[in-house]
Amino acid sequence: MLYAIDALGERDVLEMSLAELVPPLAAAGISPTIVCLKSRGNEAVRNRLTAQGFDVRVLRPGGLASQVRQTADVARATDADLIHTALYRANIVGGLAGRVTRTPVVRSLVNTGYASERLADPRLTTGRIGIARNLRRHGFTVIAEPESFFVTKETHLEPDEEARARRWGADLATTLAPLSR
């Protein structure tokens, strides 16, 4: 499995959730490789994942075509049977790399709740909600119910949210495991 993400920041919630998602995937027998489209320097999440023995690769600087080519190269080299992407740029790069390599792609839309009842509200027509509705309309399948987590102004998880995030990550890993075999 190849996981593509824009970067592995110091304290961003998505990056922290990736750090929680990867160990259960490994425990389920999946060998995840993480591709970062860029580096912000000394990143705590990247350091944490590498210290745990996970394969984390930062792409060389370049434009869209270069990033797609590099991501496709990693997918081929690791024999990825699934590409999981998160965040805007990684969704584009990973999606195109999936087409090039004929590898299935799972895209995570993050930072906004996408509960079915919210998607059904006709007043929600802009931003990511509209994108999620259009993805469903064009045949994309939601493989796991989205979840929102409460964070502080510094983008740290609120008290008690870390345990909930870990459970959600473990559940997501269980859902992804059959897709990545």
Offer a few descriptive terms.
single chain; alpha/beta; 7 helices; 5 strands
Describe the protein in words.
- This protein is α/β, with parallel strands linked by helices and 181 residues long.
- It has a single domain, classed as 3-Layer(aba) Sandwich (Rossmann fold).
- The chain contains 7 helices and 5 strands.
- The protein has a 5-stranded parallel beta sheet with strand order 3-2-1-4-5, with helices on both faces.
- Helix 1 links the parallel strand 1 and strand 2.
- The longest helix has 16 residues.
- The chain is globular and about 40 Å long.
- The N and C termini lie close together (9 Å).
- 33% of the residues are buried.
Q: Give the overall shape, derived from the CA principal axes.
A: globular
Low-confidence stretches: 123-128
CATH topology: Rossmann fold
By DSSP (H or I, 4+ residues per run), the number of helices equals: 7
Order the strands across the largest sheet as they lie in space: 3-2-1-4-5
Tally of separate domains:
1
Number of strands: 5
Cα Rg: 16 Å
What class, by secondary structure content?
alpha/beta
Major beta-sheet overview = 5 strands, parallel
CATH class categorisation: Alpha Beta
CATH homologous superfamily identity:
Glycogen Phosphorylase B
The helical percent reads 40-55%
Percent range for β-strand residues: 5-15%
What distance separates the N and C termini?
Answer: 9 Å
CATH architecture group name: 3-Layer(aba) Sandwich
Order of helices and strands: EHEHEHEHEHHH
Please tell me the overall pLDDT.
77
